[in-house]
Amino acid sequence: MCGIVGYIGSETAAPIIVDGLRKLEYRGYDSAGVAIHDGGKIEVVRAMGKLRALDEALTHKPLEGTVGIGHTRWATHGRPSEENAHPHVAGGVAVVHNGIIENHTTLRHELQQKGVTFSSDTDTEIVAHLIAHALEDGAKTLIEATRTALQRVEGAYALAVLWDEHPDKIVAARHGSPLVVGFGEEAMLCGSDIPAVLSHTRDMIFLEDGDLAELSPGKCSIQTLKGNPVERPKKRIDWSPVMAEKGGYKHFMLKEIHEQPDAIAQTVLARVDLEHGDVFGEEIGLTPELATGCRRVYIVACGTSHHAGQIGRYWIEELAKVPCFIELGSETANRDTVFFEDDLLIAVSQSGETFDTIGAVKKAKAAGAKILAISNVMDSAIPRMSHGSLYTRAGPEIGVASTKCFTAQLAALLLVAVYLGRRRDTLTAEHAGEILQALTEVPAQMNELLDDRDYVRSVAMQMTHATDVLFLGRGYSFPIALEGALKLKEISYIHAEGYAAGEMKHGPIALIDEGLPVVILCPKDDSYDKTLGNLNEVRARDGQVIAIATKGDEAMHDVAHHILWMPEAHPLTLPMLTVVPLQLLSYYVASKKGLDVDQPRNLAKTVTVE
Ligand code: M6R
Description:
Blueprint: E1 3-8, H1 13-22, E2 31-37, E3 42-48, H2 51-60, E4 67-73, E5 88-90, E6 93-101, H3 104-113, H4 124-136, H5 142-150, E7 155-163, E8 170-175, E9 180-184, E10 187-191, H6 195-198, E11 203-206, E12 211-216, E13 219-224, E14 229-230, E15 234-236, H7 241-245, H8 252-258, H9 260-268, E16 272-273, E17 278-279, H10 288-293, E18 296-301, H11 303-320, E19 324-328, H12 329-334, E20 343-349, H13 355-366, E21 370-375, H14 381-385, E22 388-391, H15 404-423, H16 429-450, H17 453-461, E23 468-473, H18 477-492, E24 495-500, E25 517-522, H19 528-540, E26 544-550, H20 556-559, E27 562-566, H21 574-592
Parallel strand pairs: 18-19, 18-20, 20-21, 21-22, 23-24, 23-25, 25-26, 26-27
Antiparallel strand pairs: 1-4, 1-10, 2-3, 2-4, 5-6, 6-7, 7-8, 8-12, 9-10, 9-11, 11-15, 12-13, 13-14, 16-17
Helix pairs in contact: 4-5, 9-15, 9-16, 11-15, 11-18, 15-16, 16-21, 17-21, 18-21
The site of 5-amino-5-deoxy-1-O-phosphono-D-mannitol (M6R) has 16 residues, from helix 11.
């Protein structure tokens, strides 16, 4: 996830900006850069890789000046490289940007027709050109030109802008990506996250969507996209630097659970056509030929990504009516798996570096199968080996237990299933439109669920002494039961089993007694009646029932000891929601037990060994 820092004051800006960027390192990045106004002109220094590379570049080309902007880039448009690193400059205007410009293709084409040549593959450079054009066309100030440019832009952004002609101003703007303005001593700062400015001030304004701020030493004025002045309240932040890195949360895992609405929104952004009920193939790494030319789909993954793949399989078979198989990376790599040239293999891996999944990809590729990678890390090993890549835009996940990458993988897999269904003529535009509309509603529904976290915590407090927990679910809820069990065991070290509810009678029912907590996923979907039957069987054997149920399902009060409520949602998007209380449940159990939630024993974030 990219980071922004801006400084305008009386001290040399470059070290302050690089220090601010360092405070954002936890977000992950692949390149960095700064633009400094030395009073006469803007100078830019950029470098691939870590901030020490930028430090080194700055020792070769020291930048003087007390005004500047800086950026750490996590590649989305265009591969990680020095040319694609920010700031981008056009006509004396330097821009750093977080977010995604949805209509970048149209704008790029339009600018090219006006004779503009681009020096990067980024969507950000387009903004620099648009602002420069607005200034050429008569805009009097940088803020006016930025406003004119942003009126053309669709998508999400946080921006900081410098202009040659205005050595005493920075313009900052926000729409969909966070941006704070900090009040220093005789100085103003801006940053994409609180830690970026916290060493210089605790007094901040949080810009709102559609705000543009003009910063000069000791002064900040804010206006809307229409040019109307607005006031935003100044807040005092009392966080310690460590708390700031975690966004005020106790652990990265809890922060990342709360980042899921944004991770889903970003993963879907600019990839769906709601009006025509479709998904843009080029945005998800697929072509119509790949979609119609495959005779079967094969998904490979490990751990949590494998659970996402299991749900992906159900979606693909339901919507695209193509046989879809799911297998663990390690099993695929180590047995005589049979692949065909007309197979489409989808490799799901948050890190893109998992050894076992790579092994499976190699095997399928050698047999001539086409490979689609779903990964959160641009240019990681699996995308590099694949014919197409679909990046989840969850931002870096620091907690070893995967949460936001899981739900972002689900959003990505649903996009793939809809695309396959549309190209293979098994899904009407109307039905696809309904599903995609439901997908865009998930972030708000997730926020509703997250608001109920205190109740989930109270239930968790009663589970901390459990030695075993059973998770049950049917249909789309079965892989979520597996995921709930994995989350609990990996961070709380409580033995947990996920089972298909229909399999309970084939064995696990023998475990049930008054000492066993049983988490049952029983939302109102096609499997409801059957799962309710299983729930009653658990209850009849004195099991402790914790039900995940849909709001308004009054019958649950008679059968469950605890109920974690779901908002009503489309049956296909339900798994993205039902997993949230399970993530919270395991988090609160582990946190109460005082365990190292973000780095559980024996586990690594990226498993690059067999
Ligand atoms: O990076 P990947 O998605 O390929 O990682 C796969 C698993 O190692 C990973 O999901 C693991 O199971 C996590 N600890 C789950 O929280």
